[in-house]
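Incident log, structure service

09:12 report received: a user says their structure output differs between two submissions of the same chain.
09:20 pulled the input from the user's history:
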Amino acid sequence: MSHESPTPSSSANPSFAAFEMNDLAAFAAVARAGGFRDAARAGGVSASSLSTAVRRLEAKLGLRLLNRTTRSVAPTEAGQRLLESITPLFAEMKAALDVLNGYRDRPAGVLRLNVPANVARSILPSILTRFIAAYPEIRVEVVVEDGFVDVLQAGCDAGIRYDERLEQDMIAIPIGPRVQRFATAAAPAYLATHGRPAHPRDLLGHVCLRVRFSGGAMAMWEYERDGETLRVDPPGALVVRPAAGLELGLEMALGGAGVIALFEDMLQPHFASGALEPLLHDWWPRFSGPFLYYPGRRHLPAPLRAFVDFLKADGPDEAA
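09:34 re-ran on a clean worker, output below:
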């Protein structure tokens, strides 16, 4: 008896050419936004049209791509694999089309940046103020998050991180101050009640406001002086996550709740006003400033190219 292999159906062996690019784009937008409504608002379309597109794509593939609940939408394992595969393709297509931007008198479009909270608060404002004035036809969208991210998967053109958290195989250029410091501070009211630490080890007996990284690890407080380096793990009366949590910790410190250690540039305005007093100044550790990083493809989107050229012409800030 002969056995003939069944002819594969279009759903069992789908052809990429059979899919509408809009359906793939809709799926990617929903997966990145974590919901139909957020994706609809970001793309200026209706949530129902996105839902229809994703259902049509899932029907053609014969696979569920998104797990939907009343509270969230997240990719399935198959959906995540598809998202990882198509994101670079869409980025390259966008970059290829954006070459036409070179025929404009001035570059236009959207520049999407993924940045940590301290950069968004203390470094970007002055840079973006000058950049937007120089390129009024470019709209800048900033996503603030402190964890390690794949900028392409996050739907961004570029990211800003410190050297130990840069993605591999990326081009990186300096942005902002080339040297920064972590500063320790407390409000006068706190110091009047608890006294002033004379050595980093004294912090073990103080009320401290701590930061926990997005990965779950507690940020140790590091100090250095005359070649000596100390790492202190003081008790934390308050523990916050980065990004918006830093603002809570800072407000608590201003209110006299405890000692805080943050980027010096975040605390400097409060030093100037007298709302906070610097502590252990001679022990503040120095570290290299942040970098703008982006994929090393041949054609950069025109808004990103304009931003890179602007940063290079502007020059790095050498001040700590």
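09:41 both user submissions now match this output. Likely a transient worker issue. Closing.
09:42 reviewer note: The longest strand covers residues 179-186. The first helix runs from residue 21 to 33.
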